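Backbones bend. Our protein:
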Amino acid sequence: MTAPEPSPDRPANRGGLWRHADFRRLWVGETVSQFGTMVSQLALPLVAILVLHASTWQVGVLAACETAAFVAVGLPAGAWVERMRFRWVLIVSNLVRAALLAWVPVAQLLGVLTIEQLYVVALATGVSTVFFDVAYQSYLPQLIDRELLVEGNAKLQASESVSQIAGPSLGGALIQALTAPYAVLVDAVSFLWSAAWVMRIEVRAPRPERSPDPNLLREIRDGLRFVLGNRILRAIAMCTSSANLFGSVISAGFYVLLARQLRLSPGVIGLLTSTAAVGGLIGALAAGRFAAKVGQGPAIWIASAVAGPCALVTPFVQRDWTVGLLAVAQIAMWMGIVVYNINQVSFRQALCPPGLLGRMNATMRFLVWGTMPFGALLGGLLGSTIGVRGTLLAGAVGQSLTFLPVFLSPLRRMRELPSHAEPATEKDPAAGPVVPSQP
């Protein structure tokens, strides 16, 4: 992989990312935001379950609303974001999400909070998240050299895992002390914090060049062609989208099982969720070394194959020692998920030409997150018909098979994955064509 030459606007990274001031600003802002997000991810469904007494179907609809934006605006978002400065997309997205989430405690204080309002907040927050995520993954290769992408993604994933360890415990304590609607305010404040740190980033990327004949449909098509025309990216998209589909089926019933059937307190639920993130932290710390040992391609499919079957523990948990077994299974599952994510995201960023980063990330988000609202709705429907445990078992069986697309792809035997400087067609003819950066 060939890194770009440093420029006055993009300083050389001697000593790695610890000495990269702008990366540290992005890292600090996002870490605090992740802590807040972990609080609201626990608080919002508990607002629906404990405060608004929502049914399993309504909880599934709420989960679907959180990710429906990736279907509705996922593809055009990539083309739109490429016409903007990534830094300002991050800032505005954070401010919008802060305002939306702040409405939940305000509505509760006024006595007007309803499940329909939660749906609207989840939908609108999801739209902002689409733009943030596309800009975020596209901004990192602008901010740091491509040879440091694995290190950068590992550090960001490590802080996310730490927030997943401490965030739900903090969220559970806040929910018990303040009640769930007011705990959501913590997430709103964290987005303001993140926006403030992104504003301090000094590197200014050049203004995106406007096409003399902009055509949204053509730009969307180019992003789709780049992803679907590459055999490795197709396999990753199939693996991740199916994992997210079945993971959303499980998520629709997970908190219903813990809060309603097992009658665990919010504090215990938060603690249980936090222990799962220990595996994420281990995975973030081990991802680079694991890939170096077994090869970049095998690291992706092995991690996926380990993570999936761990979900089979969830349907059989009772209010006894099996709760501890669930925590162990969650640790193993998230360790695999994070190793998978770090390596496949770093590969995507390195493979893609700079002019297609936004559209590539938006296309991948559309494909892999677009299945989540359907999975959540399916989980809610199954939960209302075959019961929560049957739904969890169906999702877990599906989750166990999601590694097959990457296992059956060229990744199985590729120790070193191609980059933009070294096209896939040169490394592995079976990997498929690499579309040029400009149509």
